[in-house]
Amino acid sequence: MSEEALVLRDIWKIYRTQSEEIPVLKGVNLSVNQGELAIIMGPSGSGKSTLLSIAGGLERPSKGRVIVGGVDITDLDEDELTKIRARKIGFVFQSFNLIRNLTAVENVMMPLIFTGMYSWRQAREIALKMLEIVGLKGHEEKFPRQLSGGQQQRVAIARALAPSPDIILMDEPTGSLDVDSASRVLSLVKWLNEAFGQTIIIVTHNPEIAELATRTFYIRGGEIYQQPPTSTLADKVKELKSSAGYGSFAKVQLDLLKIKLEALEAAAKQGKIPPEVLEGELKSLEARISKLEKYASS
Ligand SMILES: Nc1ncnc2c1ncn2[C@@H]1O[C@H](COP(=O)(O)OP(=O)(O)OP(=O)(O)O)[C@@H](O)[C@H]1O
Predict the structure, then answer these.
(1) According to its record, what are the GO cellular component terms (predicted)?
(2) Which of 168, 212, 247, 297 has the most CB atoms within 10 Å of its CB?
(3) Domain co-membership, 97 together with 68
(4) ipTM for the complex?
(5) Is the CB of 19 under 6 A from ligand 1?
(6) Is 201 touching ligand 1 by the criterion CB < 6 Å?
């Protein structure tokens, strides 16, 4: 069996709308070995979810090859893809995607039944064990609405793990959880990765997850990097200030402050604001206006 759980070779994804072509991924190469916990980070809209969908065979690349557990899935037809997905790939999404009118145990049984390999009894036995592993013993017969967000996410993880897939793909798995539930889910993910040697690939904005990673990828401008972007927040501020729109933005701000100044003076004349409050407000407003005037004219 291949050492590499996932290989993406020269992946391009170009979305076509009526008026334009949007290249979202531009020749991405990526390889994740078995047992790794890899993280993909990058700014909003940089193509992280698109890359994950392509890796999991949910979407097809415009160009390039996708190899999962040594099997090239790029040209498989929908039927073959569905079967491969059920056996080799587990998905966990930010929104859990549990089926509302199925209980926790039935939700976990679903992907096992889809593989066509397990009897109902076997699927139930595995699902019950998985729920125990993720700490949900006693909650098996509850419906998703009777579980907390963190518990629902753990059901989703149990469901992804149940068929023992080669890789588990997670898209913002802690995105809709509070800090405590997120830490509990993350510790579970790390433990599963270490105890079961499960390959896990996580798309996230959460820097806490990056601490757990064996490898971190960064996407920017449709390309992938193994080093974090070097530009700092201070660089970004400089970039913003030198951009064409910044001057006009400052002018709009200036207009708004001037309107506020007029409104303050009018309110003071009508006795709506005590003079000592007015004095302080006028001072700070005038200071901001003079600063902005300098910017707007520079
Ligand atoms: N079906 C589609 N048709 C056209 N454009 C799309 C489609 N799907 C995604 N895009 C565009 O592709 C880009 C990448 O989207 P994607 O969801 O992969 O980004 P992301 O990095 O996961 O963002 P976020 O962190 O905000 O979830 C975005 O600009 C998005 O608008």
Answers:
(1) membrane protein complex; plasma membrane
(2) 168
(3) yes
(4) 0.95
(5) no
(6) no
- Of 230, 250, 282, the domain-final residue: 230
Give yes or no: residues 258 and 180 share one domain.
Answer: no
Structural domain for 250, as ranges: 235-297
Among 57-71, 194-208, 263-277, name the most confident range: 57-71
CA distance 189 to 131: 14
Q: Which of 64, 71, 92, 93 is nearest to 6 (CA)?
A: 71
Examine the domain organization and report whether 40 and 188 are in the same domain. yes
Dist. CA 133–CA 141, nearest whole Å: 16
Q: DSSP alpha helices (H): ranges in 77-148?
A: 78-88, 104-115, 120-133
Question: Which residues sit opposite 12 in a β-bridge?
Answer: 26, 63
Same domain, 225 and 247: no
Domain total for the chain? 2
- Percent of the chain scored above 70 by pLDDT? 91
Tokens 């390039």 found at: 64
Q: Is the CB of 222 under 6 A from ligand 1?
A: no
Q: How confident is the model at residue 246 (pLDDT cuts 50, 70, 90)?
A: low
Among protein residues, the one with the nearest Cα to ligand 1's atom 27 is 44
Q: From atom 18 of ligand 1, which residue's Cα is the shortest distance away? A: 47
